Amino acid sequence: MPDISDLSDGKRILLQQYLSGNAVSSSEGKAHIAPRPRGNTAPLSLAQEQVWLHGQMAPPGVPVYNETLTIRRSGPLDVAALERTFAETIRRHEIWRTTFELRDGQPVQVVHPADAAFKLPLVDLREIPEPEREQKAVRIARAVARAPFNLHEGPLLRATLVKLSEGDHRLFLTFHQMIFDGVTAYQVFLPELSAIYLAFSQNQPSPLPDPRIQYADYAIWQREQTNPEAIAGQLAYWQSKLAGELPVLAWPSDQFRPALQTYRGEIQTAVMSKELLQNLKTLGQEQRVSLFMILVAGFASVLHRYTGQANIILGTPSAGRSLPELEKMVGYFLNILPLRIDFSGDPTFLELLVRARETVLGALSNSDVPLTQLVETIRPAPDPARNPFFQAAISIEPLIETVDSGWSATQSDIGTGASKLDLYIDVDERPEGIAGPVTYNPDVFNAEEISRLIQHWRTFLEGAAANPDRAVSKLPILTASERGQILVDWNRTRADYSRNTTIHQCFDAQAGRTPEALALRQRSRCLSFRELRERSNQLARLLSKVGVGRGTRVALCVERSLDMVVGLLGILKTGAAYLPLDPSHPVDRMQFEIEDAKATLVVTQQVVVDKFPIRNTKTVTLDTDWHRIAREAVDDLSTHVEPGDTAYLLYTSGSSGRPKGVEGTHRGAINRFWWMWERYPFEPGEVCCQKTNLGF
């Protein structure tokens, strides 16, 4: 238990009992719950009413409110004694023999007489290979857990006993949530099961006295205990806490969210080591916060890092057991509360823990307002695809009371195929660390996303425990393997390609292999590889005579045409770099690029010159000057060009200021070409459409 001595007495009691699985015991000034008059009906409790109303919106056949509990028995098991134990437990607790129906338009509880016996279905798996038994047991449990309940007929609990070996049994239980919660599982049912079974297995009577009151008595009492002033004060808190536009969790996902909630569910398991648990507890003691508050802060931080949202709203259940009489009562008491976590100002994790503590304590202090009443008061924007306040929730189960070492239990570890929310994390503290199911909707998230989320949550908490004074934005979330993938694997781009050649040498080599093959086509005009090679050679020779050579820059400003490729190759063959200019661009921009690049010449066409009078730079027009170019020899020009030489100069858009020139080398271009040739190999006869602007 963390040191919370700096809190007020009221908040200290509230937090201590919450961490132990119970709400605040505030019975002073309140009448104890009295047994109801004779009768088998009672109204729903407020918690049950929320489940009833929400259940009316769920698709038929989807077991949204099926809850599972797995009890493990190590050592010998007397099945007959266990069956008697179940019969006695159901006799003791009316809510486990209760159904629900409408009377006069209102849902009510109907309590049924207890049966004299309870028969446990037994599945013996000793005949199959031992390594396969556990998986087979889970498959059996899932099939049972996924069957919907009929609230009108009951029973609203199912039990299946699976025998893996003489000393190893699994008792798989499925309950409807109207009759069950985590406190019921860990602090009432399991201790009673252990105590009664021990007595019955020794032919002794049950050592437990009958409960003084039943769940139906509580429901009647709750309906009669109206305190409008207290509820109004709590509603004022929530109106302040949930004021303004409520954030919708903008999870980055490749999947499209369904237009309606589907309530489908799958399960993965979150596991954190004993060492991490101890580190988080130490941090909690130092900062006077609970383990739950740390887990909430860590989970919300990961979602904040995913989405960049300054506010994250998570749901969390309050125990709802506000009186001592309720601490050992079987039934459903939970009220789901929204926790709005504020990340404004890029807080450190220590600062975030202070915010999380105040948020959790404030919510628990105002937990009497049912979620349905909050929706009616706050009126969040309706969205049939989402919960009104939150899409993700987190809880930590109450500690298991000490029982005979042969019994242990875990809740919600068997998937029911349903999920109330997009994402629900339900963990508990165990001797080996922290563990629990992560239930998610596969129509919203894929399995890989949830697996990464669990790893990122664990990694973040490890970093936060080691460096809590670091900003939330700076703490690690990537695992070691992910960091290695990003920093090493994705940068391991070394590939074999022709490093000692140039662009025009690659072209000449192809032209030598297929001289008469079609190289370029523009409408009805065509050039073979031989013709393109010869024309580019002639242009290169003319350019060399007017001073173009290695280290110089030549602007190429032509319409999209065969001339464009002739010009490009001709410039490269001189050893110069080409500067592509788009004739459709503003004249001032083109003039700036020519001057900024210190281009010594412009290769162009007469139609372009007529539109763009080039100043202070010599020109060669490929159409009107071709009679001069055609007099040059067609054989290759002997020039020295290195693969590391600049091949082209491209200018940025200039949207953030003046356009900036960026050089590209022959080797860099060949590297890109080689990747393209491997990834998208050309076959003979295929055509590539040159749609991209040359300067792009």
Descriptive keywords:
696 residues, alpha/beta, Chloramphenicol Acetyltransferase, Rossmann fold, 3 domains, four-stranded mixed β-sheet, 20 helices, 22 strands, disordered N terminus
Could you characterize the architecture of this molecule?
The protein is elongated. Helix 9 packs across helix 12 (447-466). The protein is α/β, with parallel strands linked by helices and 696 residues long. The chain contains 20 helices and 22 strands. It has three domains: 31-225, Chloramphenicol Acetyltransferase (2-Layer Sandwich), CATH 3.30.559.10; 267-320 and 333-398 and 415-487, Nonribosomal peptide synthetase, condensation domain (Chloramphenicol Acetyltransferase, 2-Layer Sandwich); 503-679, Rossmann fold, CATH 3.40.50.980. The strands form seven sheets. The protein has a five-stranded mixed β-sheet, with helices on both faces. Strands 8-14-13-11 form a four-stranded mixed β-sheet.
The helicity comes to: 25-40%
What is the approximate shape?
elongated
Spatial gap, N to C terminus: 63 Å
Number of helices: 20
CATH first level of the largest domain: Alpha Beta
Total number of beta strands: 22
What assembly state would you assign to the polypeptide chains in this entry? single chain
